[in-house]
Automatic annotation (TrEMBL):
This is CDP-alcohol phosphatidyltransferase. It comes from Cladophialophora chaetospira. It holds the Pfam family CDP-OH_P_transf. The keyword Transmembrane applies. GO terms for cellular component: membrane. The chain crosses the membrane at residues 163-191, 212-237, 249-270, 313-337. One of its GO terms (biological process) is phospholipid biosynthetic process.
Amino acid sequence: MSEPTSTIYILYNAKASILGKLNYACRKITAGSEDSPCAACDLTHGGLKLDESAEWKQTKKQIGGASVKQLHKDELTPEVRKFLDSNSLRWPMILGQDSKGGPIKLLIDASALQPVSHDHSAFLSLLDKRAAEEAVPIHVKDRLLLPVVPFVPNALLPNHITFIAFVVGLLACVAATSPRFSSLAVYLWLLNRLLDNLDGVLARSRDIASELGGFLDLLSDFIVYSLIPICVAYGQYAANGPDWFTASSFLAITILEATFHVNNFVLFYIAAVSATKQEGELTSLTMKPALIEGLESGLIFTAMFIWPEYVVVMSWAMSLGVVIGTVQRVAALIRVLSNMESVKREKDS
């Protein structure tokens, strides 16, 4: 089952009926450029348009942890109507309600909505701030890198950035093999992380996300991730001589690499079976949080670049975390597959 989400209500200062839309069109045409009759309509439709704007569709995707409901005056739910009846508020407005069905809160009133109705980045920032203040849990995706997107040339596609990130990641690994370039390796790795996140943000903002892009992104990440411990360890060998390369250091690196491959096999197997069986429980297994996720991996790899002398200790620690997460997923997978077999036998009998 999916986790419960908060609800964001966008209330239009117009009715959904044909007469309501005609009334809004007349008000829009006769209103001044600085006095729109419905800032919410400007936000989601870009003015006098029947369809939602492409920009709003992308903006809506960036509101995580919440379902977005867009309601006209004649489409209000009883709960929303009750809230409005007990409060004297000017239309349009943005309301919010937490995932537990708590009281509805006013997030953005008409006066605050007007200035951000044509600036979706500003709207997301304001919504995120007000939702936090009113204890309505949401999270804005791509918040940090979204302001960078307008400065990316149109000729530069997400897959181009993925390739650049991959090359930079490889250069970071090469730099890590030499003690003279250990500082450069850190900066190259951080640049790789920035670019690795930017390609996805760019794809989503331009609405050109693709399966190919996702595959190339994962492939390049896995290659770089696999090389980091090896290259950092080689850098320590180059700095300290053969005495550093003991059985313990060899085992630490090889076992870490082995845990990567086993964990990735389990994840890909779950994904492959989920695609063929269309089993909700299987799909949910890939989303179960593990001890070592993307953020934790990034932090540990960053620590390896900054403090390469501790690469053996960090490799052992990371191996343990990956093993724990893999065992948890395997145990859950066995349970789900056993249940599926039981259901299949019952149907066949």
